[in-house]
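Quick note —
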Amino acid sequence: MTGGGPRLSEGQRLNWLRLIRTPNVGPATFRDLINRFGSAEAAIERLPALVSRFSALPPRIPTLATAMSEMATAERIGARFAAVGEPDYPAHLMQIEAPPPLIAVRGNTAVLGLRMVAIVGARNASLSGMKIAQGLASDLGRDGYAIVSGLARGIDTAAHRGSLDTGSVAVLAGGLDRPYPPENVRLSEEICERGALVSEMPFGWEPRAQDFPRRNRLVAGMALGLVVVEAARRSGSLISARLAGEMGRQVFAVPGSPLDPRAEGTNRLLKDGAVLVTDARDVLETLAPMTMRQPQTFSEPADFTDAPEADDSARSRLLEALSPTPGEIDELIRHTGLHPAQVHLVLLELDLAGRLERHAGGMVSLLADDAWRSR
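Predicted structure written out below.
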């Protein structure tokens, strides 16, 4: 199932792309900017003034020509951009906190309308672990589920191979034209034949270590449930499981030998309440009630376009209330006595200047001087 909202015009899509590609504008900041100014075009016009409150450096807003060039690159490789709320944007991804405003999609976009299960696990997977992952993917696919994973070595690769014929979705940590790892380039082409590649990163972007948790967030967000097949005590798969739990997704785990370090993470998940999986029926029976529920439709956030502006006194009061310890925005509003729109505006100014850090659950914290200067 996918979104059901209207499509952006070409001009709107270009401005959305320019805005989300601007440094320090992430999904949450993008949402707040649209919320505040009504459109990406209006937000772009206001960015220089917003940034100047807390930074002497002007914002590096991509030009219209740069956005058009990225659009042309997408078209050359057979990809397109889907905006949150549009018919081909995955419906369950719209439910997460601050979904990516735009995702690049290559392949069969119809697969994004299927119910999805995520399968993730160790890169240095055992032969038995890969066999289990591939079998689960195949069995779930025959029951109508698309399988979403991260195209990594090991368990991810096995999950994609098991779902090639029924619908596989690979979420990339880099641009769609930069599949990683290199040995899975051919697999990415096979996925596109019936499934899809998805990324929120710019074309030409080489994935970095810090980009993989962002990818994991999308993998967890697109699925009804997430299955971990093998995972060490400290692994990206456990990050995916934590994110899935925070999003209200069902977490599953395949048990393993206590003597195998690759099973330490999955066995820990089981102790913490994950559903034990030995075959696809365990997943299907658990998810059956959830498939009867309709995902929430996308709705625009509250309109603050006519709200009061923030003055220097409001900025000082909010700066005094902020600290390096994450705090709730509602608590900041109560503590300062400021209008919610004033608080959100100053947070936007700090965010665009690289001085604010956003956390799960809508929490925010002020970056120390050394931290934001190094950004």
